[in-house]
Amino acid sequence: MSTDTGKLYLLRHRPPSEKLVDVAFKNLAVILASMVAFILLAIFVVVFFGGLESMGRYGWKFLVTSDWNPVDDEYGAGAAIYGTLVTSLLSLIIAVPLGVGTAIFITENIIPRKIRNVIGLMVELLAAIPSVVLGLWAIFVMEPFIRPALELLHTLLGWLPFFSTPPLGPGTLPAVLILVVMILPIITAISRDSLNQVPPSLRQAAYGVGTTRWGAIMNVLLPAAISGVVGGVMLALGRAMGETMAVTMIIGNSNNFSLSLLAPGNTIASMLANQFGEADGSQVSSLMYAAFVLIIMTLAVNIFAQWMVKRLSLKY
Amino acid sequence: MTFTSSARTADGRPDLAYKPNLSRNIGSRILTIIAGLFSGIAVLPLLLVLGYVLLKGASKISYTLFTELPPPPGLEGGGIGNAVIGTIVVTIIAGLVAIPVGVGGGIFLAEYSSGGSFAQFIRFGTNVLSGVPSIIAGVFIYGTIVTSRIVFGNAYSALAGGVALSILMLPTVIKTTDEGLKLVPDDLRRASLGVGASRFVTITRITLPTAFTPIATGVVLAIARAAGETAPLIFTALFSPFWADGVFNPIATLSVLIYNFAIMPYETQNELASAASFVLVAMILILNLFSRWLAQFASK
């Protein structure tokens, strides 16, 4: 709201009742806006104090050990933290070329606008499919379908520690693939928006000096849109770290640490989803500790993403 | 500096014609084909998932699906009536909490703040909150409402589930309200204040109605997202094999039903999970397309 509207407001003498309504409404809006900060703070406080007991008992050891034994009250989230990092980073490696490639394909003048719009719409609808439905599809369709390929991977590359176990069904690699499906729409949508915002004059200039289409994309358009693309990739990373249902249904939920991508694994989010319902005592505290670690991880990634977008924003 | 080019036409002028066989043009075409392939791969999961849900689920749509309770493990028949109602109830609770708070926060950001540090902080907080994993919202509500038991008597309840979902809806509602209100031309506000209307009247009678469609679009999208969420519900609203028993008791929802029944070793339960997926996906896609229609309707 600009300052002249403020002056207009002062032009008329206002009766006390009108002033009261105005002041009350403004304060209500301020209070409702503050709710965001309050909820964020409350999440921090609740999860931190919920995990305090466990933090005191296990300290940093919790982050690197991977016992999870409710009978002896021994807890460590090492396997889950490793699983979270591995699944999210691997899915990012696969999804970034796919997502950015799709974004380029639907922003450049390669195919008719109608088809581009349809592809864009479909990618956006993919984002709307609930995670739990993707998990169901992963269990009953995707995993049986890709198992022969995973078995081949094991027989060919079994000497690598990453493929050292035979695929049993649920496992880390199927979870990575379903995560790719879930984060693709974010990367595509944000990359497409930032590519669309590159001024047309840049494109025209590039073509004017005689570059090819991909010369323009690689040397002019992508560098100009890089902040948005990187921001989108970071947001996708944050989403992948916190993604719960599809991963829980397909990863196998094993707390035994294994380097193998074909073995069942765990992520912090899937551990929370699996165990919170029937946890009590110090297990709740340990889960809260793990949740706190997840919050810190996703917050760091998200804040870095926002900083990135701000810092590298278009300078043209 | 002189421009020399090996390619010249017969009369000595530079040859600017497109030559498809130049290596750079071939390279460019190859990259275009790769990008096309990538977008094909990107679209494929949607088609496969939709096809699967349609094939597996649509055949089981029947009257009893919506009127009966899920059967005990091992038995045949039954429906998902309680979960359909539960999803609607929990989503309505979430909307009742998130829409007023979110619209109010958006009004503050767009109408009252002048870009000060508090408003910047709230915008930043909104972005951070939208990045909080959905399961964390569940953990938070579990830690406050469910374990304390002071707020709503029974530990697990539909209300707790709805509040957990509202945390996920809140950032979307605030952002869309803020952006929607920013699209309203300042001239409208000046005109309203100029004829002596108070700020309250200006906002409620002029700016909010003008920005109604963008706000409604965002709210519908937020509702669609909340309706599909599972993670925050599995230990707040829990699940119930019975009909909904008020908002203070555990309640069944479609998403939790899919999760529970998909991993059960019984054929009937797996089929009900497929049917529930169909109903849920249909609900969400209809809401999505509705919001798209709203947005187009507004731009006309």
List keywords for this structure.
heterodimer, A: 316 residues, mainly alpha, 12 helices, flat, B: 300 residues, 11 helices
Fold topology:
The complex is a heterodimer of chains A (about 325) and B (about 300).
Chain A: H1 3-10, H2 16-58, H3 61-64, E1 68-69, E2 74-75, H4 78-107, H5 113-128, H6 131-157, H7 172-196, H8 200-208, H9 213-242, H10 245-251, H11 268-275, H12 282-311
Antiparallel strand pairs in A: 1-2
Helix pairs in contact in A: 2-12, 4-5, 4-7, 4-9, 4-11, 5-7, 6-7, 6-10, 7-9, 7-10, 8-9, 9-12, 10-11, 11-12
Chain B: H1 23-58, H2 63-67, H3 81-112, H4 117-131, H5 134-148, H6 158-182, H7 186-194, H8 199-210, H9 212-228, H10 254-262, H11 267-299
Topology pattern of chain B, helix = H, strand = E: HHHHHHHHHHH
Helix count of chain A equals 12
- Count of beta strands of chain B: 0
Major beta sheet of chain B, specifics? none
Question: What is this structure, in a nutshell?
Answer:
The complex is a heterodimer of chains A (316) and B (300). Chain A has 316 residues and is mostly helical.
Description:
The complex is a heterodimer of chains A (316) and B (300). By secondary structure, chain A is mainly α. Chain A has 12 helices and 2 strands. Chain A has a two-stranded antiparallel ribbon with strand order 1-2. Chain B is mostly helical and 300 residues long. Chain B has 11 helices and no strands. Chain B has helices at 23-58, 63-67, 81-112, 117-131, 134-148, 158-182, 186-194, 199-210, 212-228, 254-262, 267-299. The model of chain B has no long low-confidence stretch (mean pLDDT 87). The chains are: A mainly alpha (316), B mainly alpha (300). Chains A and B meet through helix 1, helix 2, helix 4, helix 5 and helix 6 of A and helix 1, helix 3, helix 4, helix 5 and helix 6 of B.
